[in-house]
Design brief:
By secondary structure, the protein is mainly α. The chain is 74% helix and 2% strand. The chain has two domains: 52 residues, no CATH class; 109 residues, Single alpha-helices involved in coiled-coils or other helix-helix interfaces (Up-down Bundle).
Length: 211
């Protein structure tokens, strides 16, 4: 959204006031010159002061409640955490750290989205939200804060330690997300075993079956 500068309006108004105080305004051509002068001042100042582009962030709509209090509570915490991770990502200047924060944010969104589809994963996600996520954000907040504190052995060493642990953190988040599919994988494996047994019992399994 572009916000117009107020200067062109003030300039046109100044022309109107000065003309009224100094120059005549009783003949038709006086009015024509007057209007042209005011309009000229406005358009000239608009080119010199074009205004600024203003980014207006539209908040994401709140998802519909699932009816499961534990799921709804965790998903609210997840949205707050993701918003904070995105804020930190914009504040941190180091490209490699920003890239890892992007991965952490994407995985966090997926982890919290999973419990809407599979509420059985609430205990696992609750542990994740209770320790891994707040600890990660605490480290990133410390990194953001210390990055602007200049140089020094303690500052540089701490920043490097945080950068090093982020690779491990990303991998841990990937494993956490993958672990949420353990129940589903087991159910699918059970279904496959049952289907194979049924096909074998009916004589429909194996490569040698002919229609």
């Amino acid at each position: 959204m572009k916000v117009r500068s107020a200067i062109p309006f003030y300039g046109a108004a100044a022309v109107v006031v000065l003309w009224a105080l100094i120059l005549p305004l009783y003949k038709p051509w006086h009015f024509l010159v007057f209007i042209a002068a005011a309009a000229g001042a406005y358009f000239l100042l608009e080119k010199l002061f074009p205004g600024k582009e203003k980014v207006i962030e539209v908040p994401e709509p709140e998802p519909e409640p699932t009816g499961n209090e534990a799921v709804d509570t965790l998903t609210r915490e997840g949205r707050q955490a993701v918003a904070e991770l995105k804020r930190l990502r914009e504040s941190i200047r180091e490209p490699s750290v920003r890239s890892r924060v992007d991965e952490i944010t994407a995985l966090t969104e997926k982890i919290f989205a999973d419990i809407v589809e599979d509420p059985q994963d609430v205990p696992q996600v609750k542990r994740f939200a209770g320790y891994y996520l707040p600890t990660t954000m605490k480290l990133l907040n410390a990194y953001d804060r210390m990055s602007g504190e200049g140089t020094g052995a303690n500052i540089s060493g701490t920043l490097q330690r945080i950068e090093d642990i982020l690779d491990t953190t990303v991998e841990a988040y990937r494993k956490q997300y993958d672990a949420l599919f353990a129940n589903e994988a087991l159910d699918i494996e059970t279904d496959i075993t049952v289907l194979e047994s049924m096909l074998k019992r009916e004589g429909l399994g194996g490569k040698d079956f002919n229609v």
